[in-house]
């Protein structure tokens, strides 16, 4: 069992030291975060940045990379803990936070974090695009779509999907290659469709959809309903002045 966070103790991941590594970064987080609303960067506090608040959370990234090592409750607690403390001065932060926010059900927050990744250079959010593109952030936007809203996981040698769409996205389609076959996934409000557009009718692969095992072949698409998203409860707070711009409720 992993330790889950409390008000004064960060979470940990067994065997990784992640929690211990991050603990020293946030010893006086609450006191220092009160000053963040008046600054543009944690570096403006005049303190060693990583000694006080995290730019990004290594544990959130660990949950993205190794999702099967954490329970649903641990993920929800860890997301809430780090959303309240991570200031995202790193362009690498928004994408994994979006993936995990989507997984635990905070879809509006996930969409706004996804948009932050997309607009990192398009809107020059960090006033640094003149020095070069943030390619990892752009790649992270794809991961936020496919892993976040598409629910893609492959960490246990199986391809699984737990898709859930935010209010601003009515349809999402993407392709990926799995064991030499091109898999096309199409999601809308009502259903998820899985197909092998280039395969022979007798050729197939196995995928999982919300815990149901499916065999997809070149003979035709396999469709399954999109289940309702459980209520995750109130959205976790962000550091003062650091919630991503609200785009989830805007006009399309």
Give the tally of β-strands.
8
**Overall radius of gyration:** 19 Å
Query: Strand-and-helix sequence, N→C?
Result: HHHHHHHHEEEEEEEE
Helix percentage: 25-40%
Give the CA-CA distance, first to last residue.
43 Å
Label the structural class.
alpha+beta
The best one-word shape is globular
Query: Which spans of ≥5 residues are poorly predicted at pLDDT below 50?
Result: 13-31, 36-51
**Spatial arrangement of strands, main beta sheet:** 1-2-6-7
Strand content: 15-25%
Please, what is the average pLDDT? Answer: 81
Task: Write a concise synopsis of the structure shown.
This protein has helices at residues 18-23, 29-36, 49-52, 58-65, 72-83, 94-104, 107-122, 135-149; strands spanning 152-153, 160-161, 171-178, 181-188, 191-195, 204-209, 212-217, 222-225.
Description:
There is one protein chain. Helix content is 32%, strand content 16%. The protein has 252 residues and is of the alpha+beta class. The strands form 2 sheets. Strands 1-2-6-7 form a 4-stranded mixed β-sheet. Strand 3 (171-178) and strand 4 (181-188) form a beta hairpin. It starts with 17 loop residues before the first helix and ends in a 27-residue tail after the last strand.
Write the layout of secondary structure elements.
Blueprint lengths: L17 H6 L5 H8 L12 H4 L5 H8 L6 H12 L10 H11 L2 H16 L12 H15 L2 E2 L6 E2 L9 E8 L2 E8 L2 E5 L8 E6 L2 E6 L4 E4 L27
Parallel strand pairs: 2-6
Antiparallel strand pairs: 1-2, 3-4, 4-5, 5-8, 6-7
Helix pairs in contact: 4-6, 5-6, 6-7, 6-8, 7-8
Key words describing this protein structure:
252 residues, alpha+beta, 4-stranded mixed beta sheet, 8 helices, 16% strand
């Amino acid at each position: 069992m992993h330790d889950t966070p409390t008000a004064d103790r960060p979470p940990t991941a067994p065997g990784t030291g992640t929690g211990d590594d991050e603990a020293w970064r946030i010893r006086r987080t609450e006191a220092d975060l009160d000053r963040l609303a008046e600054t543009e960067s944690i570096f403006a506090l005049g303190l060693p940045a990583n000694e006080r608040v995290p730019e990004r959370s290594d544990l959130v990234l660990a949950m993205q990379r190794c999702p099967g090592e954490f329970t649903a409750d641990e993920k929800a607690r860890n997301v809430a803990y780090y959303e309240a403390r991570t200031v995202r001065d790193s362009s690498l932060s928004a994408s994994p936070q979006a993936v995990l926010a989507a997984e635990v059900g905070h879809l509006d927050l996930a969409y706004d974090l996804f948009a932050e990744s997309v607009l990192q250079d398009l809107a020059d959010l960090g006033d640094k695009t003149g020095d070069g593109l943030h390619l990892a952030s752009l790649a992270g936007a794809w991961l936020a779509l496919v892993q976040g809203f598409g629910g893609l996981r492959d960490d246990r040698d199986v391809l699984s999907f737990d898709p859930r769409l935010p209010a601003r996205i009515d349809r999402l389609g993407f392709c990926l290659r799995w064991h030499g076959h091109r898999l096309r996934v199409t999601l809308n409000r009502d259903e998820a469709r899985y197909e092998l557009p280039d395969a022979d009718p007798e050729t197939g692969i196995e995928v999982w959809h919300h815990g149901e095992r499916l065999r997809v072949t070149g003979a035709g698409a396999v469709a399954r309903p999109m289940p309702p998203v459980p209520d995750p409860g109130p959205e976790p707070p962000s550091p003062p002045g650091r919630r991503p711009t609200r785009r989830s409720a805007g006009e399309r």
